[in-house]
Every structure is written in structure tokens, then in C-alpha cells.
């Protein structure tokens, strides 16, 4: 059995290898830019680069994303797109991050996980029939991240169990982690019931009513394409022209909303509701200049899953 | 010569093996277990990190607080950057405040007030190139990612650093 650990950098690669003795013989390789990797790796990094990709005999068996940041508030989607690709390719995925931790600086406070992320992971797992799990980076009594080595205990347990199971998607550690995520979601939802509903930037609307409300921006063929679905989820992104050449966190967040309120199958076309990205301050011409659908640029992520992009002057139907 | 990632890993291992307590750090890429400390630019107001300084490593031992910059080879730019930080009382005070806010000393059982912190702060350049003795900065030459290496003490006498011995 030949193991290869593709990593974004050597520090995280060596950390991953330290999690399980079975990985010690694994060859460490750096993930190169798109086009410079084995095809299977290039496919997995098509949306964005995860930290770790484990290949067993050339087949991807695990993707890991590790961060010290709590995915909170608006930034919840920051790293999401890179995990979507692994789910689409049915590669089990672990996101390792603190669920609650101290944020420092002028506005020091404890940050809590935005639980829409847990709900989205659960929906992705169900749709792609592949475990996508979140693992908590523990904190100490001061809400500071534990850094004495014990922080990796749960990760090592899950990765070890998965490896010993022969990389079975149904291994007991994944099942146990999914149960824990469900309990966390329920517990936190009880404390913050608003998280069950979409955030202020998202409206769930009747498609016909929305087209009426924004008439003048749709051609009749555009409108009829959208009217195939009676309900639409409109995600309003208030970027200004001066700051619209960017993806994070919006392109990741669009996937969270897509999985939570639109998707019913593994392909972006499989939706019960349209997903419309609305940019009220940007014209279509300016947008296309700044964020072209170019596979060589990360801006192509804007075109991956929405049904339509709606600008201040026109609409663009994507699917 | 080692890559920056490997010099970083080697420096962490070297410092641990030589009795230092690692307090904070920011790897050149990705993330690791150490807390990240950022010294904001005193002139900058509002959000954002423009002009901020994030040491690659901060380590403590025997009253010395070492700011370490890691590069594959000796870096004149890093030497200037460290000298600038160490010469600015305001930035050293901001660093102490950041460290206290994160309870980094408390968590490691180290007692130190602002005055002793200022007196004990030093800079180090860690790299895997040829040794280049600095006037005031410590150099740490890293030979392997596992932490084999040695100190090169500054040419100017420094009673705190002079206690450091190569194994």
C-alpha cells in the first residue's frame, strides 16, 4: 500500500504524518499550482487548495483543512469551497478548527462557531454520500487554543480509526463525530434559534414575485429559465465596485446557502430552489471585467453553483 | 540550504531542545499550534494588519524573551526589521500588552512585568546558511528540520545572551 501526503506546506504535512504511525512511510509532496499536479490532485484543488490530501495507491482517501480561526459570522464560508470539491469527488473530509475561542485585538471576545456550517456539512454528507466532519480544536480555561500536543488527540483518533478500517466511509469514528456534530448543532441552536433561519443577507422568495420586483433587469428568456423553480434564494452581496475583485468569503458562503436551502442532488443543477447572487452596487460589465469565468483564476468560483448573477443593470443566467 | 518551512520547524525543535519555552509564532505558511502574536503599527488606526509585525517565533528562557525570524539564508532585511522593533519602546510595550492579553506568560507559568520584559527582549535570526555574526542579534544556524544547529552569539557583549551555550 503506497501512501502519498500532498500538502500545502511542509509544516502541515509533517503535522498530518504525526497523527498516525501508518502515515510515517508516506511520501510528502507539495501541492503545486493548478496544472502542476497529478490529475487527481488538480481535480481536488480545482476550487481551492485544501491543506492535506492523502492518496492511497494513487486514490484520494482523505482531505483535511486545518485552521486556528473560528468560522464565525460572515467569515463562515472562508474555506468552504475547497471542501465542496472533495465532497463532490466523494473523498471523506475533515475540517479541524476551534468551535469557540478567544478573538484578540481591540474587540477581544469569545467567538462562537456559526452552526450553519455544521448543518451544511451534514447536508453535503447526505447528498454526496461521503462523510464531511468538523473536529473541534480544544481551548483551555482562558478560551485560548490548546497548544501542548493534546489538541490533536481527537484528530489522531478519527484518522487512526479511518485508516485501520481500510479507509471505509462507514468507520465508527466518522459516525461518532457526526453524532457529536448533531448534538452540538442542537445544543447551540437552542441557545441561538436565529441560526435556523437564513441571515439578513439572504431572502427566500417566490421566483415570480422577485422577477416582478426587479423587472427591467431580466430578459424574457432569462426569466422563464428561473421560473422553472417556484422558489428562489437570493443572497445579496453588498460589494462596492472598488472592492469587488475578490472571492472570500462569498464564494464559499454561496455553497453553504446552496446546500442548506437549494440543493437536492450532487450536481449544481440539482436544486429545489434557484440560487441567485445579487450585487446591487455593481454593473454586469464591470463585474465581468473584474471577475471573469476563467478556469485559471479563483474568480471562476463565482460561476460554480448559482443559477443567476443579478447586477444593478442586468442579469446573467448561469444554469 | 533548507526551505523556510524547514528552518521554522528546525528552529522550534532547536529552541525546545535548548531549554526555551515557545510562547508564540507564525509559520511562513499554513498554521501550527502556537498562538499568533501581532504587533500593530502604532501609527495605524482602525482594522487591518498593514504595517503590523508578526514574529515567526517568540521564546522565553532565563528572563530572555527572544523574537526569532526564520529564513533559508541570512536576511539583512530581517536583521533591520528586528533592530527597528527592538529599538522602539512603544512597539516593545505593544508586544508585551499583546502577550498579556493572550495570557501567554501566565499559561506557561512565567512571571514578568513590563520593565523586566523590556530589559529581557532580544532578537535572533535563524537560518540554514553560512554563519554571519551580528553586532547585537543572536544567530541560530539550523542544519536539520529536527533541530540540529548552533548559536552564533553577537559580537557586542550581552550578559544575558552570553549564558547560551552550544551543546
CATH topology of the largest domain in chain A: Trna Endonuclease, Chain: A, domain 1
Distance between the termini of chain A: 42 Å
Shape of chain A: globular
- Helix content class of chain B: 25-40%
Number of strands of chain A: 13
Helix/sheet category of chain A: alpha/beta
How large, in whole angstroms, is the Cα Rg of chain A? 20 Å
Question: Main traits of this protein?
Answer:
heterodimer, A: 319 residues, alpha/beta, Trna Endonuclease, Chain: A, domain 1, six-stranded mixed beta sheet, 10 helices, 13 strands, 32% helix, 19% strand, globular, B: 167 residues, 5 helices
How would you describe the overall organization of this protein?
The complex is a heterodimer of chains A (319) and B (167). Chain A starts with a strand and ends with a strand. In chain A, the strands form three sheets. In chain A, strands 2-1-3-4-5-8 form a six-stranded mixed β-sheet, with helices on both faces. Chain A has a five-stranded mixed β-sheet with strand order 9-10-11-12-13, sandwiched between helices. In chain A, strands 6-7 form a two-stranded antiparallel sheet. Chain A has two domains: 3-193, Trna Endonuclease, Chain: A, domain 1 (3-Layer(aba) Sandwich); 202-317, no CATH class. By secondary structure, chain A is of the alpha/beta class. Chain A has ten helices and 13 strands. By secondary structure, chain B is an alpha/beta fold. Chain B has helices spanning 4-17, 76-87, 89-101, 104-107, 114-120, and strands at 21-25, 57-61, 64-70, 121-127, 138-142, 149-152. Chain B contains five helices and six strands, in the order αβββααααβββ. Chain B has a six-stranded mixed β-sheet with strand order 1-2-3-4-5-6, sandwiched between helices. Chain B has one domain (4-163). Chain B is globular, with a radius of gyration of 15 Å. Chain A binds chain B through residues 8-12, 14-15, 51, 66-68, 102, 104, 108, 140, 142, 144-149, 151, and chain B through 3, 5-6, 8-9, 27-36, 98, 101-103, 106-107, 145.
